[in-house]
Specification:
Length: 249
């Protein structure tokens, strides 16, 4: 059994399970801006990336533009089925996607050998989604802000895609809790591999908020996995990582 994962920077991933290709939270072209304007925060890619081919599903965790990025979504084939949080579903509906499967935490989408279960994610301001993605013996957990659903029961997950750094703002507190939540994720899921997400890629941020953000942690911190046998990878953008394990009878 094999899992493949390619990182696009920020929150974007292309994963493949059982030959099913799932594009997650892509920001591949154009700038990233939030209301009310660039003065608040603006992200710029060092270079744009082509939309990957042969996408089976588009999976969106949140409706914020760093997850449901309108300029990128405009370039994606609108016939590709979308699985998304309520807020993200509202975004892709306006852009014209034909098949939208809205999941609330606890709900699941099943097709062929793929099962995608939504978990409770970050509140920005409404509760958004994380996901457990399964196909046969392969499994992935992804949640981009480090918010763990307390309803998830202990179980084995092969691959975690999660931030491993905390980000906070004055007054607002931590809005990405990767370092804080990682010990809980390791205990809950006993993963083989952790892929650091959310804060990587060749991206430049400017604006008022960017200057106020406080960072706690580092992907180079060897103590992050001190009580786990998992491997931590800080992924290179556009490099495909392959994770294989022997079939179990």
């Amino acid at each position: 059994m094999t899992i493949k994962a390619t990182y696009y920077g920020a929150n974007g991933w292309l994963i493949e399970l059982d030959k099913t290709r799932i594009l997650i939270d892509p920001w591949l072209n154009g700038d990233l801006t939030f209301p009310p304007g660039d003065w608040l925060i603006k992200g710029e890619l060092a270079k744009e990336v082509e939309i990957p081919r042969s996408i089976d599903f588009l999976l969106l965790t949140q409706g914020q533009p760093d997850h449901a990025h309108p300029p990128t979504l405009e370039k994606i084939n609108k016939s590709i089925p979308v699985i998304a949080s309520q807020a993200a579903s509202n975004v892709v509906s306006k852009i014209g996607f034909a098949e939208i499967n809205t999941l609330k935490p606890g709900e699941a989408f099943k097709k062929n050998n793929i099962n995608i279960q939504a978990t409770s994610g970050a509140s920005v301001p409404n509760i958004e989604n994380g996901y457990i993605i399964e196909s046969g013996q392969d499994s992935i957990y992804i949640e981009p802000h480090g918010f763990l659903d307390k309803q998830i029961k202990r179980r084995n997950i092969d691959l975690l895609i999660t931030p491993v750094i905390d980000f906070s703002l004055p007054l607002a507190g931590k809005f990405i809790k990767g370092k804080t939540v990682l010990p809980q994720l390791l205990k809950l899921f006993n993963p083989t591999t952790v892929l650091a997400s959310t804060t990587g890629g060749d991206i430049t941020f400017t604006g008022l908020i960017n200057n106020l953000i406080k960072v706690d942690g580092s992907v180079e911190d060897k103590t992050l996995l001190k009580d786990s046998s998992a491997t931590l990878i800080s992924p290179e953008p556009l490099k495909e990582y392959k994770f294989e394990k022997a079939n179990q009878s």
